[in-house]
């Protein structure tokens, strides 16, 4: 009987180590096959000359302070032909007064006002649809009221990509830096998300974008019937739209620092939790291949650390297990140091070994929460 249990124990340890190696291989695939593309990507240094008329669209609900602080930086962009369409979505603060004052200073500002109806509750997708209809131009650039462009050339950098016959342009939106743990991890998670979706686009398989810095054509929007297929979902005006309509041929990226759109991260755990619960809830509506791709990454990364600990605890090939861990970490540091430098996250590379563990725990926890909990309010 002791021999039987010894054999069983050896068998279990062998299976665990094989699974650990499989997780390592999957993680190696994402690093080498996808993320190296972004590490080697170089945005154009010179600002290309472009004269495409642009409509910037912003949906705002009770954003009076943000509109007052950030909207002038968009209205003062160094671009020859653009308008800014702000949808004042059922606001009950002083947004209307702020927008009226700004309209007097900037004739290129157009305001669309939505009033609350007791029997008809609007959401961001409805507001954006009205804004798109009100826009006079074919080329649309989206951001949020709490966002500030990194430079006066934000519109120019994003618009230049339409000259390549692209219909969707995926931009990047980092968070401002502050000195606390939640901010650092939120910035890290945002960086990792960007690494994935920007690498996917460079690999010819774009699957998501972020509404804080996103552009597409009006023709594409209406030919795809707008948000009709997912209007019932509170989130997804950005990533679900891109997931359904982005292709290898119609999508490109813009990551020049002048094209960044900065915003402030959530400052409390509760507000951060509500935001992430809302975002993760739409992942189940992605195309099947994208859901599989993201699930393999999340599960393999999580199990990689769990199985590493088990191999060390049970002392089954501990040196080899540590060697694979070290190899993966070295590759991460090599690849991500170049990417983080490009995406305003150079300081976060030192937190990578620790944040990587938390990140994969976070993906699995919020992925599960998003599957079972429905969010019914966007603001």
From TrEMBL:
GO MF: glycosyltransferase activity
Domain Glycosyltransferase 2-like: 55-186
Regions that span the bilayer: 12-32, 294-313, 348-373
Pfam families linked to this entry: Glycos_transf_2 (PF00535)
Domain of life: Bacteria
SUPFAM superfamilies reported for this sequence: Nucleotide-diphospho-sugar transferases
Keywords: Glycosyltransferase, Membrane, Transferase, Transmembrane, Transmembrane helix
Coiled-coil regions listed in the entry: none
Recorded family membership: Belongs to the glycosyltransferase 2 family.
Protein name: Glycosyltransferase, catalytic subunit of cellulose synthase and poly-beta-1,6-N-acetylglucosamine synthase
Organism of provenance: Mucilaginibacter pineti
Lineage: Bacteria, Pseudomonadati, Bacteroidota, Sphingobacteriia, Sphingobacteriales
């Amino acid at each position: 009987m002791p021999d039987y249990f010894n054999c069983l124990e050896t068998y279990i340890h062998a299976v665990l180590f094989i699974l650990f190696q499989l997780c390592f291989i999957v993680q190696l695939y994402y690093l080498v096959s996808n993320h190296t593309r972004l590490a080697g990507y170089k945005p154009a240094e010179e600002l290309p000359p472009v004269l495409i008329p642009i409509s910037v669209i912003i949906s705002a609900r009770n954003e009076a302070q943000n509109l007052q602080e950030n909207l002038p930086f968009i209205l003062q962009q160094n671009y020859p032909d653009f308008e800014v369409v702000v949808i004042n979505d059922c606001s009950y603060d002083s947004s209307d007064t702020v927008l009226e004052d700004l309209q007097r200073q900037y004739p290129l500002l157009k305001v669309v006002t939505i009033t609350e109806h007791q029997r008809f509750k609007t959401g961001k997708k409805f507001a954006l649809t009205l804004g798109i209809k009100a826009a006079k131009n074919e080329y649309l650039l989206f951001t949020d009221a709490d966002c500030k462009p990194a430079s006066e050339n934000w519109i120019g950098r994003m618009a230049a990509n339409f000259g390549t016959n692209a219909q969707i342009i995926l931009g990047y939106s980092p968070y401002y830096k502050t000195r606390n743990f939640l901010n650092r991890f939120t910035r890290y998670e945002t960086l990792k998300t960007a690494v994935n979706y920007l690498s996917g686009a460079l690999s010819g398989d774009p699957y998501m974008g972020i509404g804080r810095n996103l552009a597409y054509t009006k023709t594409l929007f209406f030919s795809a019937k707008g948000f009709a297929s997912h209007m019932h979902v509170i989130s997804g005006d950005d990533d679900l739209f891109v997931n359904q309509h982005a292709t290898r041929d119609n999508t490109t990226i813009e990551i020049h620092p002048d094209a960044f759109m900065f915003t402030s991260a959530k400052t409390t755990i509760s507000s951060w939790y509500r935001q992430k619960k809302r975002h993760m809830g739409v992942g189940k509506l992605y195309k099947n291949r994208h859901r599989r791709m993201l699930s393999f990454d999340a599960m393999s990364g999580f199990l990689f650390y769990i199985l590493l600990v088990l191999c060390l605890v049970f002392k089954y090939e501990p040196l080899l297990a540590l060697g694979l861990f070290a190899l993966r970490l070295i590759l991460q540091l090599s690849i991500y140091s170049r990417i983080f430098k490009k995406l305003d996250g150079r300081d976060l590379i030192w937190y990578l070994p620790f944040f990587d563990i938390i990140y994969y725990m976070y993906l699995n926890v919020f992925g599960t929460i998003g599957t079972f909990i429905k969010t019914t309010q966007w603001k």
